[in-house]
Design brief:
Elements: E1 10-11, E2 22-27, E3 40-44, E4 52-55, H1 61-68, E5 78-82, H2 88-91, H3 94-103, E6 110-114, H4 118-129, E7 141-145, E8 152-154, E9 157-163, E10 171-177, E11 180-184, H5 192-197, E12 203-207, H6 226-236, E13 240-244, H7 248-251, H8 255-264, E14 269-271, E15 278-280
Parallel strand pairs: 1-15, 4-5, 5-6, 6-7, 11-12, 12-13, 13-14
Antiparallel strand pairs: 2-3, 2-15, 3-4, 8-9, 9-10, 10-11
């Protein structure tokens, strides 16, 4: 299987039975990569019709959502949005997204999960972007504060959270539905708590800003590495690993080295997803 995907649907079946979870990579880039939208994931049950969860929505991810999400999700299909933290490349697409959902006829309640300040920050950002727009949304928005000490269940989605090593508090998430498990780091090198979320994940999606682990051995920069992500996938028993939030100088300037590293791993399937890639777990 190729490591970089331009196809619409790549079937990655686990050995376990049950229903499937689909993951669409809306974006896979870091904050300032002009070629690759900010890292954002759309998770769906077997059907593409509704009950989807969007993980992060940065500057460039909002437009990419409408480029890559199934059309049936463009109005009422989203059940919830989870923000790992409040850096712009993870949340500042929301004023754009909310406004467009309203224009597309959304009427269904939308839950936004995130850090404590989310309830104040999102309406304020919307007011700056489009004055009065948040108050005029034709659908209700609820805010749910998340913390490492409380798991959350929304419909059949189960969320668990843990802090990673990042400059601003960032909560990685373990998202489960039926017997499928997705673990997404948001930003940051894995800390002891966030690493534990990855246990037996069907898909681990990890901040891999650097190529080599020794570029940031203590996580002081607030970002992980491709080598560190591979190490975590092995230790956690994750079945597959997607490298995201790769520094633009690595993704575009050291692509061959990155590919060689990924291809050298035989015990974990390592993926370098492109925007629009769809994985079925």
């Amino acid at each position: 299987m190729p490591l970089e995907h331009d196809v619409n649907d790549v079937m990655l079946r686990t050995t376990r039975g049950g229903m499937h979870m689909r993951v669409i990579f809306i974006g896979a880039g870091e904050a300032f990569d002009e070629h690759t939208p900010n890292t954002s994931l759309l998770t769906l049950p077997d059907s593409y019709d509704a009950d989807a969860v969007l993980l992060d929505c940065g500057f460039t991810a909002a437009a990419a959502f409408f480029r890559h999400a199934p059309p049936k999700l463009h109005a009422d299909g989203l059940a919830a949005i989870y923000l790992t933290h409040l850096h712009g490349d993870h949340f500042l697409g929301l004023p754009w997204l909310l406004h467009r959902l309203g224009e597309d006829g959304r009427t269904k309640h939308l839950d936004i999960l995130g850090p404590a300040d989310t309830r104040e920050v999102i309406p304020a950002a919307s007011e700056i972007a489009y004055p009065g727009s948040f108050a005029r949304l034709p659908f209700p928005v609820g805010f749910v504060e998340v913390s490492p000490s409380h798991d959350i269940t929304l419909d059949r989605w189960r969320f668990r959270f843990a802090p990673s090593l990042h400059g601003q508090p960032n909560l990685a998430v373990r998202l489960e539905r039926d017997d499928k498990i997705l673990c997404y780091s948001g930003d940051g090198a894995p800390g002891p708590q966030s690493a534990s979320l990855a246990h037996n994940a069907d898909l681990l999606v990890q901040d891999s800003y650097f190529l080599e682990k020794d570029k940031d051995p203590d996580g002081a920069s607030g970002h992980g590495s491709a080598e560190g992500s591979i190490e975590l996938a092995r230790k956690s028993g994750s079945r597959r690993l997607a490298l995201v939030h790769i520094a633009r100088c690595v993704r575009h300037g050291r692509r061959e080295e990155l590919m060689r590293l990924a291809e050298s791993v035989k015990d974990v399937q390592v993926l370098i997803p492109q925007p629009g890639c769809v994985l079925t777990l």
